[in-house]
Amino acid sequence: MVGRAAAPAAGTVLNALANGYGSAFAIDAHTEATVELDGSGTVRGDVDGEPDADTRLIERCVECCVERFGDGEGGHVQTESEIPMASGLKSSSAAANAAVLATLDALGADIDREAACRIGVEAARDAGVTVTGAFDDASASMLGGVTVTDNTEDELLAREEPGWDVLVYTPDERGFSADADVSRCRRIAPMADIVHELALEGEFRRAMCVNGFAFCAALDRSADPIVEALPEAAASLSGTGPSYTAVGDRDVLEALSETWSQRKGETWLTTTQRTGATIR
Ligand SMILES: Nc1ncnc2c1ncn2[C@@H]1O[C@H](COP(=O)(O)OP(=O)(O)OP(=O)(O)O)[C@@H](O)[C@H]1O
Ligand SMILES: O=C(O)C1=C[C@@H](O)[C@@H](O)[C@H](O)C1
Predict the structure, then answer these.
(1) Which of 140, 172, 232, 241 is deepest in the core (most CB within 10 A)?
(2) Does pLDDT of 184 surpass 90?
(3) Cis bond before residue 51 (omega within 30° of 0)
(4) From ligand 2's centre to the CA of 131, what distance in Å?
């Protein structure tokens, strides 16, 4: 029994580490998962090109699906990804969504994508790769577009399908969400409350900028990329970093790309992804 699925990365409007509310938008870079189920009863995972990667998340995704819809199967799960791992671009949510959909495909189980997304969130909590469960990131990746969520209740509050141009800057370093200074993030909850209101009003650009300045201060990251994007574009730290994303007109982002690409790391232009994760 073989299944294959792909899910997109995402950028942040509101990081949920302050007040439990989050907002994220899918972008056009993907992780693909292939799942082969057998009678071994044990699940093994591999990340293509990353022999030392932590595979517990994708293994747990397969196990959670088998516990609900299977009959004790084991097998192998492999991911191939265009998304840099632990860089703030929701690599974990994309890997979980792809692994869950690929397993459901292999099992022949048919459930809606929001329910499938919740299985990945549960697996992420079990694997210890998330603080809040990251239903914001997971829902954006699974459904596409931009979502606003309550991560404490795993509830989808709003979803839109904007067609934004997006500039991404990813420094060479890596930063795991589970290592973020959560107590400092909680101190900025009054700022996150403003971002939450703006996001629910559909004021995503202003929301991103307020989020970016507040979380750069809390997580001791530079706000320079955000200042450089303003006033023509909007930008934020993505997740707990180290990546930043900016949204705006294509020509403005092309000019900003020349500034951002003077830093070490990768700067790339992309767009929002509106259709979300798919079985291949
Ligand atoms: N392609 C992948 N295949 C398998 N597991 C992955 C993959 N990408 C990420 N992961 C898992 O997710 C963990 C990284 O999660 P983390 O939340 O720190 O990064 P992120 O999702 O990129 O960041 P953020 O949540 O700030 O956007 C990895 O240690 C690994 O367990
Ligand atoms: O681990 C988590 O709970 C999160 C990590 C970051 O991606 C945040 O952007 C997200 O809102 C929540």
Answers:
(1) 140
(2) yes
(3) no
(4) 7
